[in-house]
């Protein structure tokens, strides 16, 4: 059929429409040529790294269609380029401010330039032309300077990310002019805003109101490290859509607002490192939508954990580094979605609830550095755990309740610094994914099973140090080929160990076997040298080595070497300085028998990286070598070096100890060139001359200055600077003169001040009373005068625990106010609180520390306190001219251990309050003018070991019993009015104070010289009768026996009613005449039934009947230990004898 012509015309429009549609469909399969050209032009203009680029380098090579290029997205229907991702391409430039081809991509909705290196260039203004942009990411791109206001023209933006990480060294963006409020005013559609690291420098009211006023739909506010300050303003609560709030690493210094509870959609709250204070609103922890809460590193933020609701939504809870306290509630088991729980470095206490170990989804658990006690619950059901850190608590008991083998995902197990004990379960070494096993600083004991097999191929750190493990180290340990660090020091491992075993550990970089009972065979065979691992750290201290191991010559990476406390003698080999190819950082050869340096004259090799050189306690002699110029720690102490101190010093030196040598000469002023010096110890040498003034000026950085025990003279320069950092100053045992410098008061951090045994003059340095940290003050054996004065307004040494002012010319009364301010002596610390006074760690990267040494007179002996316990307190004011009474406030110093006020002119009574000093071990009040009786309260001093009250004017009876029964005559001699044990010339019956006895005078006589013949004749009669009886017994043997028999009957009749069996003198027929006079009585105590009492053997024994008596209960013989009757030796009441009837 043929169509009419008119019909063709009617179909033509439909044909054209179809043709047009078909052409458009065909062309939409590829990007537009114009946009393709723009992209190629952009690539050619950019400066980017070919090695880092994974997208730009492929453009034009992968496909002719630019929509298929890496990092390019196109609209599926229009084929216009709508997305461009050029992140991490190593771009360093090429985008001009306004004319780049990038700005001509008119349909671009997403642009990502993150993680590049634009080298602090400003954000291009041309970005404002991309008005269709909805997502812009410029994070960590290297842009810097002011964020341009032109970006606010991008009104359609939903996501804006300008964040940068400052620790990467990237440039810093800022929003100052315009500020945040001006910048965000057009972003009404914005839902996510990331400005981390952008300097806003805004108060809380400013940034909160800016967000609340312009961004009503905001869901994510990420403003960490933005320089924000002040409290979070109430206006923020208007943004009800907020889901994520991150303002960490700002200095808010405010409380957490309670209105956060009202955010109905909040899922993430990150407020770490914000200086938060006050108490955290506990209800925030109960918000049903909250999944992440991070409050870490807010040291002054307090709080506690609530009772958690069932099926809580929390997935991450981080409270580390806060002051949260209390117990970990058992309801923590209700947080069934919990993935990460970090409560480290808080103040939690109590036992760990078993429910925390039952969180099956838990991946990360860190409860370290708290006060948790008790046993570790079984974690067998927490099969998803990868990190379990319970270190630095006081957990105890064994760890065998957990089936460790079942924790197949566990990578890190850290139980160090607890009180765990028992043996190590072998299943610990069967965890397949274990990488780090740290059990150091516990009480684990027993042997490692010889059949031990470490089945984890990933184990790289095994640290069992500071335990009580014994036996041999199983060889299987050295077959764990993944080990990088093997630390076993400070145990009781014994036996011989051949270092050739180490060659199996190809990846080993750190080995520490120090401080065991091992005997190391360090001879590595030549066959094993090539396969021996290249170590970075090797510590073989106390390993019974007799030679420096020769295999060390081949260690090209060794940086830390410790061969201390061995038996190595001879010369320090020259090649040891070349170990590690000059990379040696720490060398410890201390406590050996080295005598010299091999092949060296006066200069040690310039090992460029050597930071720590410890040669103390050897037998090194000769001249002191010139110090390595870059070494920070130098210890040459306790050797026999002579000559002078070298004059070459560098600013690298931080610690220099030359103590206990024979070094002479002066202190060189060039030492002041060591401007970073923190510890200088030149004590116990033969140094002379004066103390350089520049050394005093160096105390602006110097922390420890110890010059004691030399021959230094002159005065101490009164030029201590403002900001003096000294914590220890010891110049004792020299010949220093002059006055105590007043400028010492500027050293406000001073803790130990020892100026003793010099020739200092002047008055007592009361101006030092404001040194509130002073713990040790020694001024003994000088020529100081004046009185000790305290004012009510001054603190006057609240931390003082050792004070020695002995052997000066101080006078006046001892003021009660002074003692009342010494609070450190009033504290009675528990055993768990006992620590050492002060340990200074001069190098943060090294465990080496400096410990003060103080010499004191204690219990009459001069002793050296190598490590001063905070529990040790002492007062010594002896050998001065103090007068007046002993202050009663001394009794408030209940932590006092030693008190010496001897050789003064103190008067009055001994205050009974001294009986409150229950920890007192030594009390010396001798050579004073004390009067009255000895207070019976002193019997309560149960720790008193030394007592000296001699040469006073004390009267009355000496208190009896307890510690007083251990003191000898010398403790009380020189007191004419004292009596009672142990004074031999006194008896208890004579110990009452009596009036002077007047001469007898007959009332009827007129003369005191008249004779009373009645008394005279009576005396002559008794004398004559006694002489006749004695003479008869001496020469009449039978009469003597008869007399003895009668005496026996008489004594027996008296003692029998008291249960005492008396054997008498007549029973020994075989005794000689001479031995009868020396006979002692056997006294045996019996009970009422006539049975011998054998429960206390000390009641039996030989006792002189003339010098013994029974106690009030007739249960114990009290014998005079000074008995010398009949020439017999005194007997100790501790001796025992047996006797039978």
If you had to describe this structure to a student in words, what would you say it looks like?
By secondary structure, the chain is mainly beta. The chain is built from 10 helices and 71 strands. The strands form 11 sheets. The protein has a 35-stranded mixed sheet, with no helix packed on it. A hairpin with a 2-residue loop joins β56 and β57. α8 packs across α9. The protein is elongated, with a radius of gyration of 45 Å. The protein starts with a helix and ends in a 22-residue tail after the last strand. The C terminus is likely disordered.
Please give the radius of gyration in angstroms: 45 Å
Principal-axis shape: elongated
Gap between N and C termini: 160 Å
Q: How much helical structure, as a percent, in the residues?
A: under 10%
Extended strand count = 71
Hey, roughly how much beta strand do the residues contain? 15-25%
Question: What structural class results from the helix and strand content?
Answer: mainly beta
What is the residue-averaged pLDDT? 83
State the assembly state of the protein chains: single chain
Q: Report on the biggest sheet.
A: 35 strands, mixed
Residue ranges: pLDDT <50 for 5 or more in a row? 14-27, 831-836, 988-1012, 1066-1103, 1105-1119, 1124-1141
What's the number of helices?
10
Question: Nutshell version of this structure?
Answer:
The chain is mainly beta.
Structural descriptors:
single chain, mainly beta, 35-stranded mixed β-sheet, 10 helices, disordered C terminus
Task: Give the arrangement of secondary structure elements.
Layout lengths: L4 H23 L5 H13 L26 E3 L6 E5 L24 E3 L22 E3 L7 E2 L12 E3 L11 E2 L5 H4 L8 E3 L9 H11 L5 E3 L21 E3 L21 E3 L7 E2 L12 E3 L6 E3 L12 E3 L4 E5 L12 E3 L4 E5 L12 E3 L4 E4 L12 E3 L4 E4 L14 E3 L4 E4 L13 E3 L4 E5 L13 E3 L4 E4 L13 E3 L4 E7 L11 E3 L4 E5 L4 H4 L7 E3 L20 E3 L6 E4 L13 E3 L4 E5 L14 E3 L6 E3 L9 E3 L4 E3 L12 E3 L6 E2 L13 E3 L4 E4 L3 H5 L6 E3 L4 E2 L15 E3 L21 E3 L21 E3 L6 E2 L15 E3 L4 E5 L2 H5 L18 E2 L9 E2 L2 E5 L2 E5 L8 E3 L4 E5 L12 E3 L4 E5 L12 E3 L4 E4 L13 E3 L4 E5 L19 E3 L33 H23 L1 H19 L4 E3 L10 H4 L4 E5 L16 E2 L4 E3 ...
Parallel strand pairs: 2-3, 3-4, 4-6, 5-7, 6-8, 8-9, 9-10, 10-11, 11-13, 12-14, 13-15, 14-16, 15-17, 16-18, 17-19, 18-20, 19-21, 20-22, 21-23, 22-24, 23-25, 24-26, 25-27, 26-28, 27-29, 28-30, 29-31, 30-32, 31-33, 33-34, 34-36, 35-37, 36-38, 38-40, 39-41, 40-42, 42-44, 43-45, 44-46, 45-47, ...
Antiparallel strand pairs: 1-2, 54-55, 56-57, 67-68, 68-69, 70-71
Helix pairs in contact: 8-9
């Amino acid at each position: 059929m043929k169509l009419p012509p008119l019909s063709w015309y009617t179909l033509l429009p439909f044909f054209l429409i179809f043709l047009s549609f078909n052409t458009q469909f065909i062309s939409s399969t590829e990007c537009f040529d114009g946009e393709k050209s723009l992209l190629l032009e952009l690539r050619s203009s950019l400066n980017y790294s070919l090695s880092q680029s994974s997208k730009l380098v492929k453009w034009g090579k992968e496909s002719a269609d630019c929509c298929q290029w890496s990092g390019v997205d196109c609209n599926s229907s229009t084929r216009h380029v709508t997305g461009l991702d050029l992140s991490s391409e190593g771009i360093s430039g090429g985008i001009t401010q306004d004319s780049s081809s990038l700005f001509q991509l008119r349909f671009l909705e997403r642009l990502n330039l993150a993680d590049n290196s634009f080298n602090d260039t400003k954000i291009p203004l041309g970005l404002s032309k991309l008005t269709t942009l909805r997502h812009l990411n410029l994070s960590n791109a290297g842009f810097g300077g002011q964020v341009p206001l032109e970006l606010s023209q991008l009104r359609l933006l939903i996501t804006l990310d300008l964040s940068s990480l400052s620790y990467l060294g990237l440039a810093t963006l800022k929003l100052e002019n315009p500020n945040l409020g001006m910048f965000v005013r057009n972003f009404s559609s914005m839902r996510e805003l990331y400005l981390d690291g952008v300097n806003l420098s805004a108060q809380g009211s400013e940034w909160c109101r800016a967000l609340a006023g312009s961004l009503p739909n905001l869901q994510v506010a990420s403003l960490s490290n933005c320089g924000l300050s002040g409290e979070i303003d109430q206006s923020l609560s208007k943004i009800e859509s907020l889901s994520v709030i991150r303002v960490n690493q700002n200095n808010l210094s405010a409380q957490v607002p309670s209105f956060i509870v009202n955010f109905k959609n909040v899922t993430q709250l990150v407020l770490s490192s914000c200086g938060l204070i006050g108490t955290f609103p506990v209800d925030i922890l109960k918000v049903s939508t909250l999944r992440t809460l991070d409050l870490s590193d807010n040291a002054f933020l307090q709080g506690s954990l609530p009772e958690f609701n069932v099926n809580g939504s929390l997935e991450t809870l981080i409270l580390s580094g806060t002051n949260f306290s209390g117990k970990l509630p058992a309801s923590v088991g209700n947080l069934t979605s919990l993935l990460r729980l970090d409560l480290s470095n808080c103040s939690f206490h109590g036992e760990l609830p078993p429910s925390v170990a039952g969180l099956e989804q838990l991946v990360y658990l860190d409860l370290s550095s708290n006060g948790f006690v008790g046993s570790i619950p079984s974690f067998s059901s927490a099969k998803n755990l990868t990190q379990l850190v319970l270190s630095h608590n006081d957990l105890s008991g064994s760890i065998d309740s957990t089936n460790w083998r079942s924790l197949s995902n566990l990578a890190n197990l850290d139980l160090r610094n607890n009180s765990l004990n028992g043996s190590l379960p072998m299943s610990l070494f069967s965890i397949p994914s274990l990488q780090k096993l740290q059990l150091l600083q516990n009480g684990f004991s027993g042997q490692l099973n010889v059949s031990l097999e470490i089945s984890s191929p990933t184990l790289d750190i095994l640290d069992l140090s500071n335990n009580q493990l014994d036996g041999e180290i199983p060889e299987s340990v050295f077959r764990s080929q993944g080990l990088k660090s093997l630390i076993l020091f400070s145990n009781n491992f014994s036996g011989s160990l051949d270092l050739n075993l180490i060659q199996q550990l190809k990846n080993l970089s750190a080995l520490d076997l120090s401080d065991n009972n091992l005997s190391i065979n360090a001879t590595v065979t030549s066959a094993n040298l090539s396969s021996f691992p290249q170590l970075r750290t090797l510590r073989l201290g106390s390993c019974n080595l007799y030679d420096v191991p020769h295999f060390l010559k081949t260690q090209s990476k060794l940086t830390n070497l410790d061969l201390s406390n061995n038996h190595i003698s001879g010369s320090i080999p020259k090649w040891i300085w070349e170990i590690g190819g000059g990379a040696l950082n720490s060398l410890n050869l201390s406590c050996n028998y080295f005598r010299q340096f091999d092949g060296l004259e006066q200069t040690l090799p310039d090992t460029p990286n050597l930071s720590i050189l410890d040669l103390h306690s050897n037998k090194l002699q000769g001249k002191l070598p010139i110090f390595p110029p870059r070494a920070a720690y130098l210890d040459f102490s306790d050797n026999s070096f002579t000559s002078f101190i070298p004059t070459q010093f560098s600013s690298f030196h931080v610690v220099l100890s030359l103590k206990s040598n024979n070094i002479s000469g002066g202190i060189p002023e060039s030492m002041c060139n060591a401007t970073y010096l923190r510890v200088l110890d030149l004590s116990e040498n033969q140094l002379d001359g004066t103390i350089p003034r520049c050394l005093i000026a160096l105390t602006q950085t110097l922390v420890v200055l110890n010059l004691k025990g030399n021959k230094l003279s002159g005065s101490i320069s009164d030029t201590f600077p403002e900001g003096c950092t000294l914590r220890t100053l010891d110049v004792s045992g020299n010949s220093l003169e002059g006055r105590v410098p007043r400028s010492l008061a500027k050293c406000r951090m001073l803790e130990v001040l020892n100026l003793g045994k010099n020739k200092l003059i002047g008055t007592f340095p009361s101006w030092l009373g404001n040194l509130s940290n002073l713990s040790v003050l020694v001024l003994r054996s000088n020529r100081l005068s004046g009185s000790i004065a305290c004012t009510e307004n001054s603190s006057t040494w609240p931390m003082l625990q050792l004070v020695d002012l002995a052997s000066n010319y101080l006078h006046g009364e001892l003021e009660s106010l002074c003692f009342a301010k010494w609070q450190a002596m009033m504290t009675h610390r528990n055993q768990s609180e006992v620590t050492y006074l002060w340990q200074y760690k001069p190098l943060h990267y090294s465990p080496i520390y400096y410990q003060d040494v103080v010499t004191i007179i204690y219990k009459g002996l001069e002793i050296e306190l190598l490590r001063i316990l905070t529990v040790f307190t002492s007062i010594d004011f002896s050998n001065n001219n103090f007068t007046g009474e002993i202050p009663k406030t001394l009794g408030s110093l209940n932590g006092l251990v030693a008190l010496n006020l001897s050789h003064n002119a103190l008067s009055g009574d001994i205050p009974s309050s001294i009986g409150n000093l229950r920890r007192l071990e030594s009390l010396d009040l001798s050579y004073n003018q004390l009067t009255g009786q000895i207070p019976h309260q002193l019997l309560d001093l149960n720790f008193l070991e030394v007592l000296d009250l001699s040469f006073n004017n004390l009267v009355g009876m000496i208190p009896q019993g307890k510690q007083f029964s251990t003191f000898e005559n010398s403790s009380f001699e020189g007191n004419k009015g004292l009596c009672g044990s142990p004074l031999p010339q006194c008896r208890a019956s004579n110990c009452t104070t009596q009036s002077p006895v007047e001469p007898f005078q007959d009332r009827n006589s007129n003369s005191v010289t008249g004779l009373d013949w009645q008394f005279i004749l009576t005396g002559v009669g008794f004398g004559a009768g006694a002489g006749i009886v004695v003479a008869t017994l001496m020469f009449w043997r039978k009469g003597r026996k008869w007399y003895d028999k009668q005496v026996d009957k008489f004594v027996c009749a008296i003692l029998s009613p008291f249960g005492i069996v008396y054997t008498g003198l007549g029973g020994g027929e075989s005794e000689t005449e001479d031995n009868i006079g020396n006979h002692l009585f056997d006294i045996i105590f019996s009970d009422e039934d006539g049975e011998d009492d054998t429960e206390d053997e000390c009641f039996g024994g030989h006792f002189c009947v003339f010098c013994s008596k029974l106690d009030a209960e007739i249960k114990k013989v009290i014998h005079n230990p000074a008995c010398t009757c009949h020439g017999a030796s005194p007997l100790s009441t501790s001796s025992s004898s047996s006797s039978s009837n």
